[in-house]
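anyone seen this seq b4? input:
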Amino acid sequence: MNSKNTIDKKFIKQQCDKGLLKNIVLPNSLTAIESNAFSGCISLESVEIPANVMRVGAEVFMNCENLETVVFKDNTTGASMGKIVGEAMFFNCKSLKTVLLSNDITTIETKAFYGCNSLKTIIVKREIPPKLGDYVFPNLNIDIYVPQGCEKNYQNAKDWSVYTSKIQPIS
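predicted toks r here
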């Protein structure tokens, strides 16, 4: 990380090349992640993205083949700044199984999880369905959990209608 509260891509690449990045919790002071910041980091297995991250570039974790779990931390300040899961952010993360999306995710852009063929569970904590781009998920065999009482909101939302049978309440 550098003094601008963004990721130093050169440093990250060095750490990835050495196999030193496996399970990372990004610091709360982080406010932005540039495009391709972790792309191709084969050693990466899990990542926790803090609530303060408001700007995310494209293809941030593309081709992180061993990435299994992603957690977007909840914004607990009450601020209403929406977050975006960037275009092709997790494209081709073949081992990704579970994603927890925070309550302030408002948009999931095109191909955000495309090629994540092991993806089985998406937990969306937002009561209002986020806007979906094209080809967001790799297939229709994903269990989607949403806040209890909000299932119909998702099932009736145009972007989510193809997943109607997969939407169920968080228990």
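The first strand starts at residue 23 and ends at 25. The radius of gyration is 15 Å. kinda curious what u guys think
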